[in-house]
Every structure is written in structure tokens, then in C-alpha cells.
DDIAS protein (Catharus fuscescens), 130 residues
Amino acid sequence: MNSVQGLLAASVISIQNSCFVYPACQNCFSRLVLDSRRFSCLKCGCTGEAKDASYRYRLSLKIADTNDLFDITVFGSCLDPFFGVTAENLQRYIQDFNQLSGETNTESSTRALVQAVETCFIGKRFIFGV
């Protein structure tokens, strides 16, 4: 699953979603189901305490090369250099910011993060391993 079949030089046209970090199963990387105290993985059955959940990057992009448009999703730690922190730390910073600012509606912090990601990626050219 990690083998690169080819390289594609393309420009980012748009960000397809606003959720860049997700709680991920440490065994199979699937999205975890979280409640206030527990997490569970529907794919492999892994369970644990919510506070121990790991987080992973997931960035869905629309990209274009000289001929075609593509929808791609970039996962994992290869995004650490772009965000400047691990997904785990970014999630912690977001939670701490919302808690310290007294935000009950996390929409403003989400909007600021989306805007920052759009500024960093849209219009930029990257080489994608596909």
C-alpha cells in the first residue's frame, strides 16, 4: 500500500474538506469512533480510552497537471513538515486553544486553520507519489 507507482507534478486547485486531522487506529489507520471516554475501531476492533487516541493527517486535494484534474488524499506524517507539527500535536493545540479561549463553537478556529492551509497549498506545485 505504501509503494509509489509513479510521480505526478501538479498544482493544488482546492482543498476538498476542512478536517485535516482525524483520530486514527494505531493498528490499521482507520478512523476511530470516539465518545467522551472511549474509542473503538470499526475495522479491526481495537478499543481504548479516548484520551489515548492517536491522530493522523488526512488532506484531500483537487490537483491539476497540464492535462487533467485529479482528486487525491495525502495521509500521515509526510504532512508534518507542512504543518510544522505532528497531527497529534496539532490536535492538542487546537483543543488547548478552544479551551483557553472559552470557545464553545469551534467554527472560528476551524475557519482559521482552513484559511492557513489554503494559503499554504492552493496554487502551489508539488510532486505527488501515486
In short: Residues 7-21+58-129 form a domain with the OB fold (Dihydrolipoamide Acetyltransferase, E2P) fold (CATH 2.40.50.140). Residues 12 and 63 are 4 Å apart (CA to CA). The longest helix spans residues 87-101.
